[in-house]
Structure formats: structure tokens, C-alpha cells
Amino acid sequence: MSEIVKARLHVYPNGGAAARALARHVADAIRVKPDLVLGLPTGRTPVGFYHELSALAERGYFEFRGVTTFNLDEFLGIPPSHPSSYRRFMETHLFSRVGLPASQTNFLAGDVTDPEAECERYERAIARAGGIDVQILGIGTNGHIGFNEPGPILQARTHRVTMRPETRRSNAALFDGNLGAVPREALSMGMATILQARSIVLLATGQTKASCVARLLSGGITTELPASFLQLHSAVDIVVDAAAASAIPGAVSEH
Ligand code: GLP
Predict the structure, then answer these.
(1) Is 133 among the residues known to form the active site?
(2) Nearest C-alpha to atom 9 of ligand 1 is from which residue?
(3) Percentage of the chain lying above the pLDDT 70 cut
């Protein structure tokens, strides 16, 4: 009988320790493979991770210049230059600090006239880059990954999505708290796009993520919790702080 591979859980006492550990993990992967293809998320959670990763690059621990990145998703209907776009978020928190040229950073464009063609372009670009080596994920409070929202079905490939109300609310901070300004739609990598990454690390911090983290580790696989599909992948690490681990029976901080 084949061995059942489970996601590896790493519990840290707080978000800062989790961010430092993930930054070290990614930096070490880049030291081993300087032309790593890295999938990246946005949100409040990865800000500390991007800060730590930039600091390691600035200290000369590793070189970022050979890396190619693909961001998971982008709002539909706003241009890349919009101050609330995910592209701008990444430029602010990571790319400007590590000096990564725009030619090595890949985004879905939110201002295209043909979103379906844009999604197909993105899939081709990922394939042309040789696939994603390490995909970093956050998780929504409703269990979404990227913008793959809970519901009766999930999409395999990069696609256009209507955001759920709770997802728009949690993204309102990027629009100065103005919920009305948050686009209703987005473009997102699909579930198969994500699951084809060679390895995946999900970062979750804070009490609001605790229930989803516990369910994704030990519940069944369901479209109502898109993150539960990570159970289908054989190389997944879940990096959490103590608050996000608080609903996992018997979870103790090992670091
Ligand atoms: C957005 C992104 C997700 C991200 C989520 C979590 O909806 N599309 O990729 O995981 O936010 O955000 P936060 O880290 O702010 O909780």
C-alpha cells in the first residue's frame, strides 16, 4: 500500500516567527535554485514574510535577481497602475526592495478587454516558465485560496471570478476602507494551476483563520472549503502561528 502523505504542519508562537521561518525557507530554495519560479499571494498575512524576505536579500543571504514570480490573482476592472492593485501591493512590499525587474514579475492584467484571453495567456506564461516551483498561499476567512471562492463548483484553470461579500470586505482595506470601491470581480489562478506547483506553502496567522486551518487539515475535501484540495498535493507545508493553530486538536508550537 502506498504511503499517505499529509501536509506538514509548522506552528510558531507568533506571526513574526512564522514570517521569519517562511522567509528563510524561500531564501534557501532560491539559494539552491537561483532561477526559481515563485508563486505569490497578497493580503495582510504575507506582509511580514515579504519584509523578512527583503531583509534577507538586503543582507546578502541570497540573490533575488534570477527569480521569476507569478502572482495568484488580480482585481478585474482596475489598471496595473491603480494604487489598490495587487501589482502595486507587490511592488511596495517586495519587488522595489529586492530590485526585481518587471520583466521577471508576472501578473494577470485587470484592465483587459478580453479577460478570458488574459487567463489563457497567463496559463501559457506559467507553462513557458517551466511551471511554478514554490507556490506561497494565504487563505481567506472563508477558506478561499487565490480567489477560488467556496461554492458548488471550483474552476481548474485561471479564470474570471465574482468575489463573495466577505472577500470584498476583507479587501476593502486596500481601497482605504471604501467597500464600494472594491471591484466585484477578479481574475485568479484555478485550483489545478495552484495544485500543479511542485511544492506549496500556505501561511495563515490569527484567530480568524483557525477554523479553516483545522478543517483543511482534517476534514474531507470539499468545494465549500477550497483550501481542503491541498490534501491532494504531496508536498504541502502549512505555516501558522499559535492563534491560527488554536482549533487543531493537540497542535503545539514546535519552534
Ligand atoms: C485575498 C487574496 C488571497 C489571500 C486572502 C487573505 O482575498 N485574493 O489570495 O489569501 O486575501 O488575505 P489576508 O491575508 O489579508 O487575510
Answers:
(1) no
(2) 146
(3) 97
Burial class (CB in 10 A: 0-12, 13-18, 19+), 178: exposed
Distance CA 125, CA 131 (A): 9
What is the spatial distance between Cα 213 and Cα 15, in angstroms, rounded to a whole number?
15
Instruction: Determine whether 102 is exposed, middle or buried from the number of CB atoms within 10 Å of its CB (0-12, 13-18, 19+).
Output: exposed
Based on the residue annotation, tell me whether 149 is a catalytic residue of this protein: yes
* Global pTM exceeds 0.85: yes
- Residues with Cβ within 8 Å of 65's Cβ and at least 6 positions away in sequence, in order, are 99, 100, 101
For the chain, what's the residue count?
255
Nearest-atom index, ligand 1, CA of 139: 10
Distance CA 18, CA 253 (A): 11
For residue 209, the SS3 value is helix
Q: Which of 64, 58, 73 is nearest to 29 (CA)?
A: 64
pLDDT digits (tens, 9 = 90+) for 180-225: 999 999 999 999 999 999 999 999 999 999 999 999 999 899 999 9
User: Is the distance from CB of 74 to CB of 90 less than 8 angstroms?
Assistant: no
Distance of CA 27 to the CA centre of its chain: 16
Take residue 40 and report the three cell numbers written for it: 505569490
Give residue-wise pLDDT tens across range 124-148.
999 999 999 999 999 999 999 999 9
Domains of the chain: 11-198 (3.40.50.1360)
Task: Determine which one of 52, 73, 118, 237 is catalytic.
Answer: 73
Q: CA 255, CA 252: separation in Å to the nearest integer?
A: 9
Which grid cell sits at 177? 476602507
